[in-house]
Design a protein that fits this description.
6-stranded mixed β-sheet; L-amino peptidase D-ALA esterase/amidase; 4-stranded mixed β-sheet; alpha+beta; 14 strands; single chain; 8 helices
Amino acid sequence: MKKPRLRDLGIALGQIAPGPLNAITDVAGVTVGYATLVRDEPHVVRTGVTAIWPADTIFTDFCTAGFHSFNGNGEMTGTIWLAEQGLLTAPICITNTHAVGVVRDAICVHAVKHGIDESWLLPVTAETYDGWLSDFQSFPVTQDLALQALDAAKGGLPAEGNVGGGTGMICHEFKGGTGTASRRLSAEQGGWTVGALVQANYGDRERLRCGNAPVGLEITTDEIRGAYWDPEPGAGSIIVILATDAPLLPIQCQRLARRATTGLAWVGGYGSNGSGDIFLAFSTANRVPIRAAMTDMKMLGLDACTPLFAAAAEATEEAIWNALVAAETTTGFKGRTATAIPHDRLQEVVAKYQPKA
């Protein structure tokens, strides 16, 4: 059964129209795959891996990319090389904190198995912490699980909520996880698409907002007990992956990645000391063949970047909310429970703060 999304509840955010799927896969060629692991024996596990392919030829036909660390209490492998050359050379994976190494290695294994003629690989794998709901110190994520996610990648609307790397995540003290959204600019603005995929695992309850509505102040912990894993306010993390078909140079991708910060702030994230808020953006328009001696590139004009930046912020905001809306109440490690945000109450609160006509 299809999980609901924010717009299914009659709630629309932003001013720019979404793409047909309202997902990162609205950017042509982008595919997403998941491997989800839920079991109670021999350890209570709620975890998984998410794989994002910018293109099925990414190992041999690189794309421009850039990243931004809003707060660096987290990990995203491969970023030193990404900053050096400005190119994404492999699919991206997202998982839990202690599984970064094995998942990163699985990308290399996948390349070797498929005959990729590279001397070495430095792929991107990012993480957020699922140890409140999952016994992640039992190291349940394996190379095979990561390979399943890489092999499962497909187009269409990706699943959201308790899926892939987002399976055991918590957001603003409600059940969080994986979410996606997109924005498509008007023809006059270039017609470019920006898609976002998030793994949302951060935030204080009282700061949670949906548009004009202070949702976290209205749906208090007296009504629904919060899920906590750390005494520090705002602890947790969020990974945001942005894709676009606009022709961007690496430094422009880096600028685009920074705009995820705005979408995060609109929902209520502010980058606490204990939060790893790390964002990456890539462009599918400029491609660099692996053995190319010379490559022509196009660059979006400076002023033309402004609506693209707005699209990135809006897509990030809605992707977080799609993660929250699709998430399902989960009981996991040590009997702890993360409760999904109640859809009826969310609708009530948003309606209460709607501007009067």
